[in-house]
Amino acid sequence: MGKPLLADFGISISELKKNPSAAIRAADGAPVAILNRNTPEAYLVPAEAWEKIMDALDDMVLADIVRSRAGEKGIKVNIDDL
């Protein structure tokens, strides 16, 4: 059993070498699976999609920090003392 294809578009390595820009344009902003003998070897992710992925991962990390600190008690401070 081969690896699952996690993209709607796929292109062989040899086709990618011939014209990488065409592969990116054809996918219209979606990730492209780079195939070797019909098995995904890598994924080509457009910059905009990668930025969204990284933002989502950052949000997940921040949410974990918030959850881990949710039980902490605050320290009462008088603003005049600062």
TrEMBL record:
It holds the Pfam family PhdYeFM_antitox. InterPro entries: Antitoxin_Phd/YefM, phD/YefM_antitoxin, YefM-like_sf. Antitoxin component of a type II toxin-antitoxin (TA) system. Belongs to the phD/YefM antitoxin family. NCBIfam families: phd_fam. This is Antitoxin. It comes from Sphingopyxis italica.
